[in-house]
Structures are given as structure tokens and as C-alpha cells.
Amino acid sequence: MPPVAAIPLLERLFARVIALRWWVVAAYTLAVPFALVLALRIPRDNAIERMVVDSDPEVAVTRDFQRVFPETPTAFLLLETRDPFDPAAFGALRGLQSALDSVPGVDSYSLLTVWERIRPAGGVPSADELRAFSGGTEFLRRQGLVGPGFLGVVLLLDVEGAAERDRALAGIDRAVSAVGAGRGPITAVRRVGAPWVDAWLERETAASSVRYFPLFGLFVVGLTLTLYRSKRALAAILASLAVAVLLGVALGSLVGFAFTIVSALVPLTLMITCTASLVYLHSRFVDQEPGTDLDAHRLFALCNKFLAVSASVFAAAVGFLALAVSHIRPVRELGIWVAGGLAIGWFVCFTLYPALQVVLRTPTRGERAIAGTWVAHLAERLPRWSYLRRWVLLPLSGVVAAAGLAALLGIPGVLAPMRLQTEALDYVDRSLPVYTDTRAFAERVLGLTSISVWVKAPPGAVVEGAFLTELDSLSRALEADPAVGSVVGLPALLRLRRYAAGQGDALPTDPGELERLGAELEQLLLTEPALRSWVDTATLGSTYLTVTSRAGSDADVERLATAVREAWERVGVGGTTLARSTYRLAGRGVLQATIAKNLVPTLTESFSLTFGIIFVTFLFVFRSGVARLNAMVPSLFAILATFLLMRLLAIPLNVATILIATTVLGATENDQIHFFYHFQERRGGTSTEAAMRHAIRVAGHGIIFATLINAAGFLALAVSSFPPMRQFGIVTATAFALALLADFTALPAALWMFFRERPDGLLDAGPGG
């Protein structure tokens, strides 16, 4: 509790705010339009290459790689057909590519394109010619251009930003619609690739806000009117809430943040936490004792709740600020953004809200009865009830918490740790075509894991025949690995050219022919843009291979990296040029693996930091060591029980659900802070039962209704079609409900055990007494 000397200072400060109330309202009124402009300027950015912080070494390698070899967004069309060599099917393919060629920013290639570019004077090929051409080389099948029951079209998107990408995808959709899938030789056209997934994610993260904000707004309106039964109170709370959220969101624009896959949670989180603070303040304000002066009571209520509200906001801010340790950029930005927004909301709660209280003449219970009179009955009965059941409540909570810890971390040799989910496709609703099409592609054509092997050789080595054969040997060794489905690079392209010229699907072995191959490649680099994209033309000293997992395989980046390492060790030996070269892994797949690697540290490090700082905060807020320890009980129980629920419902850890621990710990500590603040307010010279009754009577309204606000706010995310957001909302709301349950069961049971007292006048100590 604040020292006695601090109370007059707080009274003077709040008296000054109330005296200048019209100036305060005017200042916020002027700030709102500027904040709105800033908030509307915040961009959206879900690019995976910006999901990891710049200091991460994998990001640095990938960015260096992309400066030399810019990665073009690639998509794929899978044309399902009963006979891929049916002339009518090729006619449909030709018509589709003709339509695709008219779409700005889209370049397509297929089996027909390969034929036409390699044999420009060959005319229109017959079905038999194409069957023979594709049957003599593995390259076309490995790239998904033709296979049993399908023809493939690779799409290269030359676009800048999301708007151009979406226009290109719309043009592709129009071209696909013209094919008339299902009415001719093409039975279905499946759209596959990151551009469609990214576009869906961006639409969903934007649409989620449109869905859940009205739901939560209606809940706040209904709860306020039900609880306080005053339109004036509703106006004061809603106006303060709107200003706090708007200013908090605008902060992101000032510091250069963007809305990402998780930071779309910022407005909702600010709205929920600020509403909870306003409920705590208003619940204390309406609790006016009969016969007291309204102005004096207003100052008393503000001073009485100042430390508890400030400490609870600080705890929540610390919970989010601890996410700054994460190497996942959106998570780090979310933490910093919400922490800053909470600080702004705290300032609004103690300036604009008191001013509006006076301006709008919000009533107390002396003027208008409020709901929740049953809390007084709860305060009378709960202490003794919890005492009699303390040996059941606390051990049961411990068992559930222990089970939750095991569900999260696993049991060696018995239970694996919780599954991590990082692939962008895992964030897509499984009922949507973008998901089912991609899964069908992964089962039939190529896997979904892909990495780039950036090979750095001595300058000029890339156009040397000996190096090309060594790189080809590396490619062949990789293709022989059971986890690898495709290896694309200079060797594969050169083999295809030789195959089309009737020289076989292999590079030459004769030294003279190898020398001519290198010279030919050097000339081709001057005229063939497709080949130049595979070579660092400034030094002729680096190139890369794109390695993709096999269809139907669950190989991850680590498995592909192992295949590369083993193949390199077998091939790059002796005095070969490859032995004097180095390689690094880069690209989108590597960044996905980096995100996965950083998910667990994000959980453990941020949670540990949050727990430590909140505990230190309690050292200053609470004099009692018992209070410091017991204040953590409901939050820890809720978090661990939630992980148990996630495990039972097969909800994985992902870039959204990884935030649950710090979010719940930071937010639910509000309840314990308010409870123990008022518990200690009465504890001196009274019994545990009397102090507990006082804490429940004074803080019970705020704890119950603030928790309902928190739970309902996050539960509004359940309407989202974005699985991580929906999962985060459901499990977080469940965690708040569990914390509320523990507030009135495990917490009082723990207090009885620590203080070793009996309820007043109770002769039978009960079990264990």
C-alpha cells in the first residue's frame, strides 16, 4: 500500500486533474484526429523474411543470398486430367497459358514451354512426341510439370507488394476459370503456393479485427449497463476506452511497426486490459459509503485504487514487454507495442476518465443501485467454505498444474513435448481450397519443405566444366536421398539442354567436352536470362541448388540439411573445386525453421522474465512474504492447466498460442494484486477470515467482471477463420476462466494453510486442522 505521506500528494494531483477537467477533455479531443491518421497509416507485413529479427544469423545469410539471387514469388497450378498426354488436355493447357501470358506480372512455364524454348523450330508437338520427350528424363517429373493424372504450370510473379500480388492472383483466377475445369479433359485445377497462402493470411488477419471488435464492443456495453445501470457511466467508460486504444495503436505508427500475423492482436489486447482497469476504478467509485461527500469519495476511490491499478497495469506491461527477448520479429514488436499502449492506457485511466466522471456526473450506488449484490454473500461464505476444503482444493490444483507441465514439456521416454507449428499452411483453415489444394500437391507432386544451398566457389569456377560435374554429382547424391524429391540448379538445366539436343540426360565426362561445356555456359549467360538467375554473374564464383522434399514425405528443414551435409561430405573430397568451396543454407524454408527454433525460447525466456519481474514487483507492493508467494498460485494454475487442455485438444504451439503464458500471467496477476491489496488493507490487527471477507467484498466485483471482460474479449477471436487466432482466443479465454476459479478456490485454501489459522469461532478445524 502507498505510504501515508503519498496520499495527500495523490489527492492534490487528482484534484488538479478534476479542476482542469475541461482542458483535459479538450486536449484528448485534439489528439484523437492525429492518432487516427497515424493508426490508419500502419502497414501490413506478413512476409516470412521479416518474421525473424535482423540480428539472427539465418536472416543475415538469407538477405545476403537474396541480394545476389533475388527470390521470385512462385506459385503452381496443378491441372488434373485422366490422361496427361491427351491432345485435348494439351489444348486446354495451351489455352490456359495464353490467358496467363496476358496477366501483368505473371510468367508461366510448363512442359509445352520447355519444348518450345529448347526446340524453337520444332513446331507444335504431337502427344506422342511429348510423351517420348518427357519419358526420357526425370527432370520434368521431378519439377511437377507432368505426372500420373496431372499437368503442371509454374507461375513466376514479378510483383512489388501485396497489392500487385493480389491483382496478379486475381488475373490467374480469371484465366483458370476460362479453362472450364470439370467440363472437359481437365477435371480440376488446384492452386498451390505461398502467394495464395500469404494473401489469405493477410485478408484473415485484417478481417478478424472487423469481426471481433463489434462483438467485444457489444459485450462491454451490455456488461456496463447491466453492472452499473447508467448510460452516463457507459459513456465515460467507452470514451476513455476508445481514446486509450486509439492512442495505443497510433504508437505503433510512430515507432515504425506494422500489422503482422500476431500484432493484429494489439488493438484487442489494449481494449481488454484498459476495460479491466476502468472496471476496477469504477467499481471502487460506485461503492460510496452512505453519508460521505461525493467529491471526497471520488478522490478517495482514485487514491485507493491507484497503487493496485498501477501495479496490475505494470504487471501486464511487463508480461508483454518480456516478449522483446524473442527473435521472432512480430512477437517482439507485439510485446513492445502492447507494453507502450498499456502505459498510455494507464495515463488515460487516471486523467481522462476522472475528468469524464465529473463532466458526465456518473452516479454511485447511493444514487442508483448496481448489480452484483451477491458478491457480499460470497464474501461471507467463501472463507469458511474454502477452509473446510483446503486439503482437497490445493492438492487437486497441484495435480492439475503438474499434469499441465508434463503436457507442455513432455516426459522422457513416455510423452513427447508439445508440437510446434511454423509452416504457413498450418495457419490456414483446413476446409479451404488453398489448404486442400496444397496438401494434394504435397502428396502427389512435391513436398512443402524447400531450402536453397548457396555454393560459394573460387571466382570463375562456376563456368569451369570440372566444377559443373562436381556440382552435378552433388545434385545426383541429393536426389538419391529418400527425403529429397527435387534438386534444381545449373546441372539440371544443362542436362535438360543436352537431353533435348539428343546428347542424353547426363553431363559429359571427357575433359575436352567438359571444357566446351564451360565455354558454352559462359556464352549462354550472355543471352539466357533464365540461366543468369542461377549464377553470380559479377564473380562467376557462386551459384545455388534448390532442394525440395519428396512428395508424401514429412521431411523438415533439419532433415534436408542433413541430406545436404552428408552429400557434400561424400562429393566434396580430395583436390576437387567443391572441396575448396563452401555452402550455406538460405531461403524461406530456413527462415521457417528459424521461427520454430525460436518458439520455445520465446515461451520460456519471456515467461521466466515476466515471472521474475512480477515477483520483484510484489516485494514492493506487498509486505507479506505469504502474499508474494500465494499471489502467483491462480495464474500458474491457469497457465499450466491451459497447456494440459491444449494437449488434450491437440492444439499446437504456434506463433500465436506461444503468447498464452506471458499474456495470461501478465493479465491475471491483476486479480491477485487487487485481492491482496485489500487483504492487507484489513489484515493488520484482524483475522485471516476478516481480511479475506474485506478483500472479496471490495475487490470481488472488479475481479469477477474484469476477468469476464478479459475472457469475453479473447473469446471473440473464436469467430476468426484464422486457426492460430481462433485457438489463441479460445485457450486464453479458458485460462482466464481457470484463473478466476483458482482465485476463489486454490488461493484462499493456500492462505489458510500458510497462515495456519481457523475461521473466527470455528471449533472443528476440519480435515487436516
The CATH superfamily of the largest domain is known as Multidrug efflux transporter AcrB transmembrane domain
The share of residues in extended strands comes to: 5-15%
Q: Can you tell me the number of structural domains?
A: 3
The global form is elongated
**Category from helices, strands and their pairing:** alpha+beta
Helix content: 55-70%
Structure description:
- The protein is 63% helix and 8% strand.
- By secondary structure, the protein is of the alpha+beta class.
- It folds into three domains: 6-48 and 229-420 and 593-755, Multidrug efflux transporter AcrB transmembrane domain (Multidrug efflux transporter AcrB transmembrane fold, Up-down Bundle); 73-199, Alpha-Beta Plaits; 458-580, no CATH class.
- 50% of the residues are buried.
Summarize the structure.
The chain has 29 helices and nine strands. With 769 residues, it is α+β, with helices and mostly antiparallel strands.
